[in-house]
Design brief:
Layout: E1 14-17, E2 23-26, E3 29-31, H1 35-45, E4 51-52, H2 53-60, H3 66-80, E5 86-88, E6 92-95, E7 100-101, H4 102-115, H5 120-133, H6 144-170, H7 174-187, H8 192-204, H9 208-226, H10 232-238
Parallel strand pairs: 1-7
Antiparallel strand pairs: 1-2, 2-3, 4-6, 5-6
Helix pairs in contact: 1-3, 2-3, 4-5, 4-6, 5-6, 5-7, 6-7, 6-8, 7-8, 8-9, 8-10
Length: about 250
């Protein structure tokens, strides 16, 4: 693959926002981008490495023949030329490495918590960021490749919040852990690990009645929505305080 010369990293600061809605900012000012070019920039932002032009055109303009798809790609690239958002070779395309992408930043920080032993300040900072950013990316976009990335982000965020909640409990920061658990439940109301986290927090604070109430609310939600039952892991948290009989056929 022939790589073009490196774009000027001392040029204007370029920011690409994908969380919630699409936005490009140049030196802090929003820049209008044509819809076809928006799709191209977003698609490249999701790629971990340069991708072939034919793959890009075939994915973004899948309902056109090869000639028209290639023409649409050239048009989208031409509209982006003044911005230097995209790097181009004869065969491949990739997002300019100088572009700061909000989604990449959040995912990198979330994965850092999952793969390391972060200090207390890092845990708190990432917790706040994951609560604030919400769960959606490119709201209102329904392309298959967007849906895949949306689910990937959702899973990274939920797993990171599970981990962060446990770390905050260990640090005795129960209020902060509570906010994380509630944000996770808001994202996925049936996620048992989030409800289990909330039960743990109530017990750590000595609020046994609230812990029991949370368990029973979750058990009723699970029964109503899926005709399911909570696992033994969440029931055992309450075993020292109340008898919760395991229903027939319960998961152990």
């Amino acid at each position: 693959m022939t790589t073009p010369s490196v774009l000027n990293s001392s040029g204007p600061a370029l920011q690409l926002n994908l969380i919630m809605d699409f936005e490009v900012r140049c030196d802090g000012e929003p820049v209008p981008i044509a819809p076809a070019s928006q799709r191209l920039v977003c698609f490249l932002a999701f790629q971990p490495r340069p991708v072939r032009r034919t793959y890009v055109s075939g994915t973004l303009w899948y309902d056109a023949d090869d000639r028209h798809a290639s023409s649409s790609l050239r048009s989208a690239l031409w509209r982006l030329q003044p911005m230097e958002l995209v790097c181009v070779s004869n065969t491949h395309l990739w997002l300019n490495p100088c572009v700061q992408v909000d989604l990449r930043r959040v995912i990198d920080r979330a994965e850092g918590v999952l793969r390391s032993e972060p200090d207390a300040e890092t845990v708190f900072r990432v917790a706040q960021e994951l609560i604030e950013v919400g769960n959606d990316i490119l709201a209102g976009w329904y392309e298959d490749w967007v849906i895949v990335e949306r689910e990937r982000f959702r899973q990274v965020r939920l797993h990171a919040m599970d981990r962060i909640g446990e770390l905050l409990i260990q640090q005795g920061r129960w209020y902060d852990a509570l906010q994380v658990a509630l944000a996770a439940i808001s994202t996925e109301p049936l996620r048992e690990s989030a409800h289990r986290l909330l039960v743990k927090i109530h017990l750590q604070e000595g609020n046994i009645a609230e812990a029991i109430h949370q368990y029973r609310s979750y058990a009723e939600l699970l029964r109503r929505e899926l005709n399911g039952r909570p696992s033994a892991a969440i029931r055992e948290l309450l075993a020292p305080f109340v008898v919760i009989p395991a229903p027939a056929g319960a998961v152990r």
